[in-house]
TrEMBL record:
Residues 106-286 form the Xylose isomerase-like TIM barrel domain. The lineage of its organism: Bacteria, Pseudomonadati, Acidobacteriota, Terriglobia, Terriglobales. Gene3D superfamilies: Divalent-metal-dependent TIM barrel enzymes. Pfam families: AP_endonuc_2 (PF01261). Transmembrane segments: none annotated. It comes from Edaphobacter modestus. This is Inosose dehydratase.
Length: 312
């Protein structure tokens, strides 16, 4: 049976993590630069930190998410198109976006990549959801792989279907005038470093760019900073997430507390010149040691120390 995290232990881990963050921890070795007011990236935030998901009841947290994201001065937000559509159908989305004027940057879509018999219907679904993103001013569609049972899953057996599906979905999105990229994820058909490299080296990168989740890369066993470096010209979108492997937040943590070399990744992206979308993300969990707003504020403080500015 899975052990339920103890709140007191989580708070203790949080404090220890903060101390570790001050003295340094295991990091990739990349050149660094001092914090500067010349950092150009405008960093946004995704909404899952508040538990905003496309399922009954979970979409209602969108208002709290936008309230906090807007109040803390993040430059944009990302959520699931289904959530936006649900609010829009009720006639409540426009007033919400007017009340909390933070722009939509992207929508997160998880189509099936391994079952070719679903391809036609999945293309239609990707187009329908992408049009919701486009209607609301978003410019990018995140394509995430479908979940699989990793203990019995064979990447090699599914690789050709994965590549063909991603090419079809990316072509459909780009034809609408939006950008799109692969967002690898743990527990899915594209999780490991080798799977990421195999896919990104096989797909049509004219349409499909790279939209990594750096925390997920680290959790999946990769050196996230090295992966970003290897695919830097293709990085057009990113979930900026840290990972420390503790009980809370599915192992993730506010930026600067974990093992992901966030500073090096941001420095590389800054120097790359393509100005991709960067959105902070922290997965929700039970018995959280901090409220969502507190994690956002902690991450914001970390980013400000690196020289990043926020909306006033």
């Amino acid at each position: 049976m899975h052990e339920v995290p103890n709140r007191r232990r989580l708070v203790k881990q949080l404090a220890m993590g903060t101390i570790a963050g001050l003295v340094g921890g295991p990091k990739s070795v990349f050149a660094r630069k001092h914090a500067s007011s010349n950092q150009k990236l405008k960093i946004g935030h995704t909404c899952i930190t508040w538990g905003t998901f496309p399922r009954t009841g979970a979409d209602t947290t969108l208002e709290t998410a936008l309230k906090d994201i807007s109040a803390e001065g993040f430059w944009s937000f990302e959520t699931f198109p289904e959530v936006l559509d649900s609010w829009d159908r009720r006639g409540t989305l426009t007033p919400l976006l007017e009340k909390y004027p933070v722009p939509l940057r992207s929508g997160y879509i998880t189509p099936n990549l391994i079952d070719s018999t679903l391809r036609k219907d999945e293309i239609a679904r990707v187009i329908r959801l992408s049009k919701i993103v486009q209607k609301l001013g978003g410019t990018f569609v995140v394509l995430a792989p479908n979940s699989v049972k990793r203990d019995s899953y064979s990447f090699k057996e599914n690789q050709s279907n994965i590549v063909a599906a991603l090419n079809d979905y990316a072509s459909a999105v780009v034809d609408l005038g939006l950008g799109t990229g692969l967002h690898q994820h743990t527990g899915t058909c594209i999780e490991s470093r080798d799977e990421v490299y195999a896919v990104m080296n096989a797909v049509d990168t004219k349409n499909l760019k790279f939209a990594p989740d750096v925390g997920q890369l680290q959790k999946g066993g990769a050196d996230a900073a090295q992966v970003v470096k290897d695919f830097l010209p293709l990085v057009k979108h990113m979930h900026l997430k840290d990972y420390k492997g503790w009980d809370a937040y599915v192992g993730y943590c506010p930026l600067g507390m974990g093992t992901v070399d966030i500073e090096a990744i941001l420095n590389m992206v800054e120097s790359g010149g393509q100005q991709p979308d960067i959105l902070v993300e922290l997965d929700p969990s039970k018995d959280e040691p901090m409220a969502p707003l507190q994690t956002v504020q902690k991450t914001k403080t970390y980013l400000q120390k690196l020289g990043y500015a926020f909306r006033s």
